[in-house]
Amino acid sequence: MCHSCDSDPETRTEIRIAGIRGIQGVVRKTVNDELRATIWEPQHMDKIVPSLLFNMQKIEEVDSRIGPPPSPSAADKEENPAMLAENCFRELLGRATFGNMNNAVRPVFAHLDHHRLWDPNEFAVHCFKVIMYSIQAQYSHHVIQEILGHLDARKKDSPRVRAGIIQVLLEAVAIAAKGSIGPTVLEVFNTLLKHLRLSVEFEARDLQGESISSANLNTSSKDSDEKIVQNAVIQTIGFFGSNLPDYQRSEIMMFIMGKVPVFGTSTHTLDISQLGDLGTRRIQIMLLRSLLMVTSGYKAKTIVTALPGSFLDPLLSPSLMEDYELRQLVLEVMHNLMDRHDNRAKLRGIRIIPDVADLKIKREKICRQDTSFMKKNGQQLYRHIYLGCKEEDNVQKNYELLYTSLALITIELANEEVVIDLIRLAIALQDSAIINEDNLSMFHRCGIMALVAAYLNFVSQMIAVPAFCQHVSKVIEIRTMEAPYFLPEHIFRDKCMLPKSLEKHDKNLYFLTNKIAESLGGSGYSVERLSVPYVPQVTDEDRLSRRKSIVDTVSIQVDILPNSSPSDDVVSNTEEITFEALKKAIDTSGMEEQEKEKRRLVIERFQKAPFEEIAAQCESKANFLHDRLAQILELTIRNEAHDRGREKLQVPPKERTSAYSYIDFGVETGLCIMWHSKGAIDRNCASEIFFSIAVSFIFST
């Protein structure tokens, strides 16, 4: 009767209303009747629920975005089959219990699949809004689990069908987040991230498989559909995460960060074997966008809670990748976690701020936990900002985000010591733009100069030292007249005239360390460390980020040296030995002065540099020497002469180890001497390596 298709509209409506009333009577009778146990069985629900949904489809378009669906009026209940069916469906779901909830929900999926109502999905969204508002709150997670299970079952369907299911999940989560979510938090995120990976994999596979022009049109359409799926996943993750309590949100942040793949590491838990480089980059961007959504609005009392070491280290790794979009997302995530007083909107856009007081920056006194955080992780943050400024593919947004990072650290985490370190960092960036050891383009060099100007203008007004503000203002005024391309308002315009070089500029265009030290010293700041140039610590992150580090360069040299042999077409690089060259080699007066100057600089650095920076440099040097020694030992094992010596040597088993040790010692020492003679290592480095070889030889024999 509910499915009546009589030709007469009035008769059809009356028959359908009679059928719906019959179902409604059965539902109401289950309260105090023996049918209560049988009506919830699957064979009954598979008939009742589709009958009600079939009539509900005739409802006019309902606004499913704001609040629960409106309750039908009394007149509509009696005369409109659609309204009567919806009211009966509400009653049915309201009586469902823990044991029979799934039996009432599963027929809804079958009906939507059979009638292809996932694309478009307005009716599907309306149905699940009715379900979520009708069931008891403690059973909400059952419905979410059923949607996740159906999403897994339809993972090979078209992108628009999957996107429709995910949007239904979003609406269900939006309602469930206000009440009981249950134990499905990680399950929701794990399933969504899995489908995000599948969508990126499908997209990458289609891009690799396109071959003819006619297929390109279809592929581009399918790619846009996959982006709909990906955006739906990210939106759902962000909405769900933003409604979680802080302790659960921290867990989700760690969970998502653990999925982000970083080249050269296997710490991530996401399978990217089928993605390729393009797909891997795409999944990195999608995951970081998801993380950005989850961290939006997150407020932690201390920065240690927001950025623990277990989260900070993997978060900063993508900030060194050779992809400007990835670096932008990392900086935006950090801003979400650092900005505890909603100051970021006031800092948007890199510019020279005439009066920072007009921004009404909100800040509090730096607590002890934040001070400890900067002592432990400050050098790591400075390093990533320093290297991020020197990327050759930076665009204007990168410089804006880097400027905002410096400003937020100043507002949220800076005491007097941190302020000095940030000024040292800014001066080091200015020097790097002038010297240009990284062969950056003129636009990027001027962009760095503009970034330094904008930040020093900001920090000088934040600490309110008049002499410092006066020096910064004077430099900016001179730049406005003589070198406007050193200011952000000019360099980031579409048509900006760039200089041919920076070497001929007057020193009045630059911020001078001695002037800054003099101005800050007069206000009680400890300025001894300003005279020590900032040098970023060396770590293994460059190698993990597909960057060529110092160790990588040395390993290339090591691989070439043993196999290099002179040939006719290779020009020898040896210096011609003349009387003047020998005379210079004998005259050591200049070398003694250089040695004295070097010792003085080392002593000064250890006296004035912060302990964290000294420790980082010593650690990096130790790691560097350890890597070189490991490479020497690896070469020794592969040495053909060494292998032949082993084969020819016939000694008893007890003496064999000792004999091999003599050969090892001889080969390793010879390699060390050869390296020193070739100039690959200096005398001190050779001494340390030889000492390590000698110790190993003594213990082995």
UniProtKB/TrEMBL annotation:
<dbReference type="GO" id="GO:0072659">
    <property type="term" value="P:protein localization to plasma membrane"/>
</dbReference>
<protein>
    <submittedName>
        <fullName>Protein EFR3 homolog A isoform X4</fullName>
    </submittedName>
</protein>
<dbReference type="InterPro" id="IPR016024">
    <property type="entry name" value="ARM-type_fold"/>
</dbReference>
<dbReference type="InterPro" id="IPR051851">
    <property type="entry name" value="EFR3_Homologs"/>
</dbReference>
<dbReference type="GO" id="GO:0005886">
    <property type="term" value="C:plasma membrane"/>
</dbReference>
